[in-house]
């Protein structure tokens, strides 16, 4: 069963998060180049890549421009349709495939041993519980080739969020889009519950657009290390940033590279 918050966040109110994803396209090319550099360092200058929870294809499309064949999976029809359209606009419709599907059922619509590498970008894990996340990555291992590489990038760190926790943040995403975010963190379950309220800026006034909620299981890097190991992956490297590829620093998001065991 899909949690209620994800149905609202990614389906019935998909247009709200879509606004932020569109803004993230501004750094998508740099993120994709960083990912491609990591893949090349692990003898994968080309190949078939799975983009897990791909959104509207910002990373998949830029990786395809760099010569990879990328399959993106997401359960939001709005995002998948937008990704297909954008792939054609960017001239990589022949090197991308976008599949509407639930990542918990990957083995039902993707082949065993199909992928050279897998990417998961921008806190696209933790929607469910730890057991479910482990099973997702176990299925990812099943559909990946021997010695496949898994990259989890730009993912929120439990340690960082806990150390720098503030109950309310205000983000100006663009000249006319403001988001007020109210946070609650449960240290016993490591779940971050947030309410995002969107406003359109008009002169000195803010006009309310709508709101959505999310409920994420946040992981520290050592928890991900153990979860992935149980699922058939071994972390082999960590970075502070997938763009700069600086060495790992706990003061930022999690960026890790793992190899299939």
Short description:
With 261 residues, the chain is of the alpha/beta class.
Structural summary, described in words:
This protein is α/β, with parallel strands linked by helices and 261 residues long. The mean pLDDT is 96. The strands form 2 sheets. Strands 3-2-1-4-5-11-10 form a 7-stranded mixed β-sheet, with helices on both faces. Strands 6-7-8-9 form a 4-stranded antiparallel β-sheet. It has helices at 4-12, 14-41, 58-65, 77-89, 106-109, 130-142, 158-163, 221-231, and strands spanning 48-52, 69-74, 96-100, 115-121, 144-155, 168-172, 177-186, 191-202, 205-217, 233-239, 254-260. Helix 2 (14-41) runs parallel beside helix 3 (58-65) and helix 6 (130-142) crosses helix 8. Strand 2 (69-74), helix 4 (77-89) and strand 3 form a beta-alpha-beta unit. It folds into 2 domains: 4-156 and 219-260, Rossmann fold (3-Layer(aba) Sandwich); 159-217.
Notable traits:
4-stranded antiparallel β-sheet; alpha/beta; 2 domains; 34% strand; 11 strands; 35% helix; globular; Rossmann fold; 261 residues; 7-stranded mixed β-sheet; 8 helices
Can you tell me the overall shape? Answer: globular
Return the CATH architecture of the largest domain. 3-Layer(aba) Sandwich
Number of domains: 2
What kind of assembly state do the chains in view correspond to? single chain
CATH fold name of the largest domain:
Rossmann fold
> In sequence order, what are the helices and strands, one letter per element?
HHEHEHEHEHEHEEEEHEE
Question: What distance separates the N and C termini?
Answer: 30 Å
Poorly predicted spans: none
Query: What's the average pLDDT?
Result: 96
Q: Would you state the CATH class of the largest domain? A: Alpha Beta
Number of separate helices:
8
How large, in whole angstroms, is the Cα Rg?
Answer: 18 Å
How much helix is in the residues?
Answer: 25-40%
CATH superfamily of the largest domain: Vaccinia Virus protein VP39
Strand order of the largest sheet: 3-2-1-4-5-11-10
Major β-sheet annotation: 7 strands, mixed
